[in-house]
Amino acid sequence: MIKIYSITKVIGVLTMGLIECDTDQAAARLVIIDRTTMLALTNRMTDGKSIIKKLVPITYTNTNNIMVGILDDSGTYNATFVDGVKAQLVDANVVDMT
Hints:
Blueprint: E1 15-22, E2 29-34, E3 39-45, E4 51-56, E5 66-71, E6 80-85, E7 88-91
Antiparallel strand pairs: 1-4, 1-7, 2-3, 2-5, 5-6
């Protein structure tokens, strides 16, 4: 006889960093870069959204090693970058990513 039990996996706190960017309507692309390694953490289209959120590893909550930039693909406007960004410490299980 086969018995099937309901298994519920309980996940504790999943601590991560959160970068929340308020973008310009003219911006077509958002870039988040680790400034020490120049590794792109994200390079994505903004799709007309004004607020974009990105979860990053917890190590970015202790240091200010992130550069965040917005740019347009047409080249009409200057790119804008902010250096020395520190991620916000959040629980990834409950953070609202909308």
